Amino acid sequence: MTNFLDLRQYLAAVESHGELRHVSGAHWDLEMGAIVELVYREAKDPKPVMVFDDIPGFPRGFRTAFGMLASTWRLAKTLGLPEDEIAPMQLHHNWYRRQKEIRPLAPRIVSTGPVMENTVSGADIDLLKFPVPRFHEMDGGRYIGTAHAVIQKDPDTGWVNVGTYRVMVAGKDRLALHATPGKHGNIISNKYFAKGQVMPIAIVIGMDPVLWWLACQPDTPWGMSEYEAAGGISGEPLQLINGPFSGLPFPAHAEIVIEGECHPNEETDEGPFGEWSGYYANRGLKPVPEPVIRVKAIHYRNDPILTCSMPSVPPHTFTLMLAMADSVGIRRRLEEYGLPGVKGVWSNFSGSGGLFNVIALEQLYSGHALQAGILASQYSAEMGAFTVVVDDDIDPSNMDQVLWAMVTRTRLDRQMHVIPHCHTNSVNPAIPPDEKMQDGKKKMLTSARVVIDACRDLSWKEDWYPVARMSNELRDKTLQKWKTVLAGLI
Ligand SMILES: Cc1cc2nc3c(=O)[nH]c(=O)nc-3n(C[C@H](O)[C@H](O)[C@H](O)COP(=O)(O)O)c2cc1C
Question: For the chain, which domains are there?
Fold first, then answer.
């Protein structure tokens, strides 16, 4: 049971664990972003949640918070996993086991909650009453939605999707929504627009961390309720309010909720924005037309906390979270396919999460490693650039070991495979900006994915060259005999 009623309870737990840092006086324009980028690229682990207050030009108490799920302990705490087993592969195995036991728990509809402490609507709406950051020097706008959830209802079935798709302030009461093709949010928008209908939409900012984890999960299938899944993980039903302006349900304990609507064919310039891959990869420094959200109302708690994610050259505030999510997501898909022998999966941080995935496999039959690699390579909704399959003597989260296997066990002419024409989209930095648009419209894009079978050839695996590493017995003996020499070193 994790059971945090809201973000505030969670931040209190994080602070008492020593993983929260308060910063006073940083400006919304580049300063908060620069501090967070510095900490997340250069500081020692675990990187803290950074809470900014006394932001110049804003009332004290109007805060921002970065890095909600950016440490292994914070992930374990959020997902209800043992807090003393937080090495990457321990987290992977524990979450892989726990998520199988979780059963959806329906949310409870309540009539009001703390998020309704303040409501502004009509001419009083001003999105910049919150300290919305400009994150990077070349960003084309201020982003209010980077660690948030977008709520939309499928017009055909009534299913409510909760997804994280970035949202830029495009005016006092206008936002731009960037949900890339293939994402549930994008599919739902297109359904309304194809019918010529107005789409109700709500943006939730500052929620309990379980719900945010789910909003970012590529592994939540179409039709599955993130609200019910969040209740299942927490062990308590989520409390939701039916929005008075949009009719959409949102958490009663959120920090800020924006209700609005999108009209067919109404677009505005969005971006550029420094993205999770470490580039301005959408169309370089050119903005892109995206759907407009006309804001109808903003609800917010007293002293609201605007949660943020700071993407940049990895590692950044959400690389670890994506690595963990993708690792277990890939393993689950392989299992659903019925593939035996998978001993672990890790999605490497430097690959930004999802772009360099390693599968540790006990090879059981010829072609097994390639089969695992090809299946896993199709997991990512956007790119999934490299999938490496290693034997199960390799720790997939240890890049030294993975690279060793790649360079010593792969017969490159036989064991490296390029799969052309797989799905990708405009986030892919390897595709030049001009190839992403045609006649002012976004183009359908594909790109290759690479599978590397870095396993020892099964036909002579048993006779493979002996590994030049000391035995466990010699290791133990040496540690025992030379403990004074080795003290503090190992
Ligand atoms: C911090 C963060 C920001 C994200 N921003 C976007 C975005 O702007 N657009 C997008 O399409 N996906 C974005 N994603 C990825 C989606 O949230 C993710 O693919 C999720 O699975 C989408 O939900 P869906 O499967 O219901 O479409 C982001 C993920 C994270 C962690």
Answer: 74-99 (no CATH), 102-308 (2.30.110.10), 319-461 (3.40.1670.10)
